[in-house]
Amino acid sequence: MSNKHPFQECEAHSWNGFTIIEAVVGMAIFLIVTGSLFGITQLVFESIGQTRVRHTARLLANEKIEEARNLSYEDLGTVGGIPAGPIAPIEQVSLGGIIFEVTTTIAYVDDPFDGEAPADLVNTDYKRVRVKLEWAGAFASGRRPVVLVTDIVPKEIETNDGGGTLSLLVFNSEGNPLNGADVNIVNSTVNPQVDLTITSDSFGRVILPGAPSAIESYEIIVTKAGYSSDRTYGAEEVTNSSKSHITVLEGQVSEASFAIDKVSTLTVKTYGSRLAGFPTLTNVELRVRGEKIIGNDETESPIYKFDELVSTNAGGTYTFSNMEFDSYMFEVVDVSYDLAGSNPALPIGLNADEQLSIDLSLAPDSPGDGSLLVLVADSGDVPLSSSTARLINGLLSYDETIESGDEGDPDFGHAFFNSLNAAAYELTISLTGYEDATSSIQINEDVFTTIILNQK
Predict the structure, then answer these.
(1) Which helix (H) or strand (E) holds 432?
(2) DSSP strand E in 46-155: where?
(3) Rounded to whole angstroms, what are the CA distances from 444 to 73, 85, 375, 421, 425?
(4) For residue 45, what pLDDT band results from cuts at 50, 70 and 90?
(5) Percentage of residues in the chain with pLDDT exceeding 90?
(6) What does the mean pLDDT of the chain come to?
(7) Edge-to-edge, what's the strand order for the sheet holding 326-332?
(8) Residue 420 contacts residue 368 (beta carbons within 8 Å)
(9) Which tens digit of pLDDT belongs to each residue from 387-400?
(10) Residue 200: strand pairing partners
(11) Which residues does 280 contact at the CB level (< 8 Å), separation at least 6?
């Protein structure tokens, strides 16, 4: 009979192999080490690949710089550029199985050493050549393009190459300089023609000495991905433009500024009147226009930068994408409705990079000569609900009182009177804690007015 304890036998056998736990742990360690080695190996190959591609790009950039240096100073320029010359501003070059996009910009430099224009009468001191290479693929340049810059000076003493200086400033909605905006400059009236795109610097500026003289013919368009745009306009587009194409005069500096910022989204929803319980209204035709004006037409009427006719969909909504920062007004084009209120109040201010919704309350167009829509607000232009609006005309025996709409409703802060005859009415607004406000209103058509209440 054996004297071994049952646990002693198990203990003896445990030394002859691995337990399941030990095997799992070992496998996990193996996988971790293998995965790490694989990741390190992959990073090493990527680093080697990127280094080789960037080396190739740098060689190509140096080659383009040397091509520029081999040109005579008078010929050094880009096609459609300022200065003009034979070098392509953008070209595709295939090298080592990779397609590189080569962007070359050449511009005069007004060196501050000898003063700057307009004090410096000869401000085309030398030329600056900038070559940028970008590429796609497994080792794409991404946000790290290869860029080489060199300055090339004339062999003789500096001379006046003629023309004037274009000085352009790009800023955002807050008035701060905007870096990285694409500024396209076109002039087809000079020889050779100008057609180039330059990126604004960290100060939001594009400065081009040596621009050929021309009268109101430099067309400027400023853009940036995800931003609004700004531009100049010719007489063929706007009769009396507020921002005409730019004139450049010999030895003078021509300045212009442009405002762009991130675009926004604006959604409008149309509802019925308070009396009807604010039902959703579909397929309502609206006119939407901004406050910014680009000029006037032949009749001196303003031409708005944004002015569109739209219709709400089957859900009673319409969404505007890529909207510019501005103040917007909505008008009801559908003759079967009158505007009976809005939330927020009109006009609405749309900021850059904002998503905003507006609700419109519409009432059926009723018989009569007109209607009256009243917005009641405090001294800070904040709409006030539950105020009492009383409209009176003794001769017509008209006396009606309506409360301004509640917060959250499509007619917040508004009171709407319809079926009014053409006449003069007395309007009185009352609200607890505020001084009464009285105004005389002449009705000949649909009228919209704002009444400000001051606290007692």
Answers:
(1) none
(2) 90-95, 98-109, 126-135, 146-152
(3) 72, 65, 19, 8, 11
(4) low
(5) 74
(6) 89
(7) 307-311, 285-290, 326-332, 348-350
(8) yes
(9) 999 999 999 999 99
(10) none
(11) 269, 270, 271, 272, 315, 316
Where do we find the tokens 């340049």? 141
Residue type at position 110: D
The model carries a pTM of 0.80
- At residue 6 the predicted structure's pLDDT band, cuts being 50, 70 and 90, is very low
Q: How far is the C-alpha of 122 from the C-alpha of 215, rounded, in Å? A: 21
* C-alpha to C-alpha distance for 161 and 186, rounded to whole angstroms: 20
The dihedrals phi and psi of 279, each to the nearest 5 degrees, come to: -70, 155
Give the C-alpha separation, 298 to 274, whole Å: 42
**What CA–CA distance (Å, rounded) separates 278 from 340?**
11
- Cα separation values, 256 from 81, 165, 177, 241, 248, Å: 19, 11, 13, 14, 11
280 — pLDDT class (breaks 50, 70, 90): very high
Query: Cα separation of 348 and 330, whole Å?
Result: 9
Tell me phi and psi for residue 14, to 5 degrees: -65, -15
Closest residue by Cα to residue 390 from 442, 424, 430, 435: 430
Query: What is the third-level CATH fold of 369-456?
Result: Immunoglobulin-like (2.60.40)
Q: What residue segments make up the domains of the chain, in order of their start?
A: 164-259, 263-365, 369-456
Q: Give yes or no for a contact between 227 and 262, defined as CB atoms under 8 angstroms apart.
A: yes
Domain 164-259 sits in CATH at 2.60.40.1120
The structural architecture, per CATH, of the domain 263-365 is Sandwich (2.60)
> Which region among 9-13, 82-86, 238-242, 410-414 has the lowest average model confidence (pLDDT)?
9-13
Q: How far apart are CA 348 and CA 326, in angstroms?
A: 8
Which of 342, 311, 308, 303 shows the shortest CA–CA distance to 322? Answer: 308
Nearest to 427 by CA among 411, 455, 456, 448: 448
Helix, strand, or coil (residue 355)? strand
**What are the strands of the beta sheet with 98-109, ordered from one edge?**
90-95, 98-109, 126-135, 146-152
**Looking at this protein, which amino acid is placed at residue 284?**
V
